[in-house]
Amino acid sequence: REASNFWFRSRNKLIIWALERYFPDAASVLEIGCGTGFVLSGLEARFPNMQLSGSELEVAGLAHAARRVKSATLFQMDARRMPFEEEFDVIGAFDVLEHIEEDEAVLGQMRVAVKKGGGIILTVPQHMFLWSKQDTYAHHVRRYSADDLVTKVRRAGFTVERKTSFVSLLLPIMMLSRRTKRQSNPFDPMDELRISGPINFVLERVLDVERAWIRLGSGFPMGGSLLIVARKR
Fold it and tell me: In this structure, what are the phi and psi dihedrals at residue 22, rounded to the nearest 5 degrees?
């Protein structure tokens, strides 16, 4: 479902743009919490010569990524205790930190593991007022505010180079959907992925417009998700 869903596809495009824009000379990337390997597969297609690595807390989850991404080095790892020092040009965590109670410990470990001059790219769900049964089902610890995440990133030893919300133009629809889900019974966790082809196409085009605005150097103060790009101090 990731390969056809507008949200996953749009997030991949945004991640690839951020990597090209802020770390054009990056030769190695580690994705923490790589899941099924969808982000890594996008990076592999766009940067065929890049050294890609992916980690997961549970080794069983790496089987899906291994089938999807042939060139990546995959391994089991607890991001709170990373066995690396100045190993990677860029480390990414894409909708991962919200699952981890000790998110600041992870950010600190990312700083140790990234090379001098390198940095991190993060995406997280945003705004606690959007909290719904979907977040509970996904085992989220929190939804972030921009100020909260920026503070934690700086405290970990990074300089924030870009901050913007995304999935911003769809925020009214998202708010309505989340409000409906709070009232729905029984809750269907797969409902968000059941989108008709035409609607999925239109939503992806909307996010294409949004990304074009971000690429021009502008940003959005609010949105369902938050992007942070930061460089190691």
Answer: -105, -20
- 8-state DSSP, 53: E
Average pLDDT, the chain: 94
The span from the CA of 164 to the CA of 111, in Å, is 21
Those residues whose C-beta lies under 8 Å from the C-beta of residue 108, and which sit 6 or more positions away, are 156, 157
Short-list 61, 173, 90, 181, CA closest to 132:
181
pTM over 0.85: yes
CA angle 103, 124, 108 (to 5 degrees): 30
Q: Which residues contact 191 (CB under 8 A, 6 or more apart)?
A: 181
Distance CA 215, CA 207 (A): 12
For the chain, how far is it from start to end, CA to CA, in angstroms? 38
Q: How far is CA 69 from the centre of its chain?
A: 18
Structure tokens that stand for 40 in this block: 């890594």
Find out whether 107 and 153 touch, Cβ atoms under 8 Å.
yes
Q: What is the pLDDT of residue 57?
A: 93
Q: What is the largest CA-CA distance in the chain?
A: 51
Are 167 and 225 spatial neighbours (Cβ–Cβ below 8 Å)? yes
Q: What is the pLDDT of residue 5?
A: 95
pLDDT digits (tens, 9 = 90+) for 68-93: 999 999 999 999 999 999 999 999 99
Residues, the chain, total? 233
Lowest mean pLDDT among 68-72, 101-105, 177-181: 177-181
